[in-house]
Design brief:
Blueprint (H helix, E strand, L loop, with lengths): L2 H7 L2 H21 L5 H7 L5 H29 L1 H21 L3 H15 L2 H12 L5 H27 L6 H22 L23 H4 L2 H31 L5 H12 L1 H14 L4 H21 L3 H14 L1 H13 L7 H30 L3 H31 L1
Length: 412
């Protein structure tokens, strides 16, 4: 079966789902290949500090976050494919600079550019799902797309810790391999994602129905504010784990070699069944999404606390798996689906851009802040305690805002 036959047989919304999954795989391979080998990178650049190593991720996420709102506006104005492909080209250029860098400052520059390029992806991905995926399958489809983050993270962590951590390849080799994957992803985007004219699109807006606009006031309604707070809290913990868990296991929990990458990757691999399971429940019980979101956040905070406080490696690995099952990748598709239910159709990408901007702000803060906490206290344990407190406060505020402000509005 050739490509044209595949496009005719497979519904467009399923094509989107598969292609977006691949996009996340590529992005997350890049995001995670450096974290298990921070000591090697430190030695390569003459003894970089923990704060400097954390800045590699912080600069990437700074570029990523800065692109969220502009890319959302551009997607709604110009079209998804028109923004996605140039964005991935910039992503590839940034990764190439990182791989060729001879000083840590050049790595920071490449990281910012890679982040700016990746920053175009979120608004494109979830505006496509909001427009083309049937509502009854949206949470599950989002979970499948998000599974690309888990697969990419696992592949990045394991390949890096095994191939680079054991001395089989230089760290730059995996960066260059990622650049090749970025180019392949661009080819798939060009081949399978349709070119659109946003102002004339009728994918979700009926011909006799005026297109809604998204005002600044609508972006800061109590419902939206609660989502911003919760997403920030969720991503703060997730990116702490993403950037510092391998180093934490190696330096404070006596893991070594390939076991560091394998143990860290369990967070992402166990997230796949968790995301699929809870997203199916959310689709079957659409009026219980808020309760399900709160339950998952509480469970994630609880198992994370047990994980970091135990001295038993077996229990620690079990806790890592449990956090993956209940954590960010399980709850995120439900949050995204819940948020999209009330989104104005003419500004979906803009709404998700603002949503992801506030959430991903955590990813800019946590890598370098954790490095500084480690440099000052000699342990990253206190950074994990801080993350658990942030989850608790964020979940409580999400509950209170939706109970006090949102429900009365809905009754009017």
């Amino acid at each position: 079966m050739n490509m044209e036959e595949v496009k005719k047989v497979v519904p467009y919304w399923k094509q989107i789902m598969y292609i977006l999954t691949i996009g996340w795989i590529v992005i997350w391979i890049y995001r995670t290949i450096l974290t298990p080998i921070y000591p090697i990178i430190s030695d390569y650049f003459g003894g970089a500090t923990n704060a400097q190593l954390g800045n590699i991720s912080s600069f990437y996420f700074l570029g990523y976050v800065c692109m969220q709102i502009p890319s959302g506006l551009l997607v709604d104005r110009l079209g998804k494919k028109q923004i996605l492909i140039p964005g991935f080209l910039l992503f590839g250029a940034g990764a190439l600079i990182v791989g060729m860098a001879q000083s840590i400052s050049i790595v920071f520059i490449g990281s910012v550019l890679a982040g700016l390029g990746c920053g175009t992806y979120y608004g494109v991905a979830y505006s496509l799902t909001a427009e083309y995926v049937p509502a009854s399958k949206r949470s599950l489809s989002t979970a499948i797309i998000n599974s690309g983050t888990a697969i990419g993270s696992g592949l990045g962590l394991v390949s890096s810790s095994y191939l680079v951590g054991t001395g089989k390849l230089p760290w730059q080799a995996l960066v260059f391999a990622t650049v090749a994957l970025i180019l392949l992803a661009i080819l798939m985007f060009w081949r399978y994602i349709k070119m659109e004219k946003p102002k004339q699109s009728t994918a979700v807006v009926k011909e006799n129905q005026p297109k809604q606009s998204l005002s600044l006031k609508a972006l800061f309604k109590p419902r939206m504010i609660s989502a911003y707070i919760l997403y920030f809290s969720t991503l703060y913990t997730y990116y702490l784990i993403d950037t510092w868990l391998p180093n934490f296991l190696e330096t404070e929990k006596d893991f070594s070699g390939t076991s560091v990458g394998l143990a860290s990757s369990l967070v992402f691999f166990t997230a796949i069944p968790g995301a699929l399971f809870f997203s199916r429940i959310a689709d079957e019980l659409p009026k219980k999404k808020i309760q399900l979101i709160i339950l998952l956040e509480i469970l994630a905070a609880g198992v994370l606390f047990l994980t970091i406080t135990t001295s038993n490696q077996t229990l620690l690995v079990f806790g890592i798996m449990a956090y993956g099952f209940f954590g960010k990748l399980a709850v995120e598709p439900i949050i995204i689906s819940w948020l999209g239910e009330g989104a104005p159709k003419g500004g979906i990408a803009t709404m998700y851009g603002f949503f992801n901007f506030f959430g991903m702000s955590a990813s800019v803060i946590v890598p370098s802040l954790t490095g500084k906490i480690s440099d000052i206290t000699g342990s990253k344990l206190y950074a994990f305690y801080l993350a658990i407190i942030i989850i608790g406060v964020g979940t409580l505020l999400f509950y209170l805002i939706n109970r006090v402000f949102v429900r009365p509005e809905a009754k009017k």
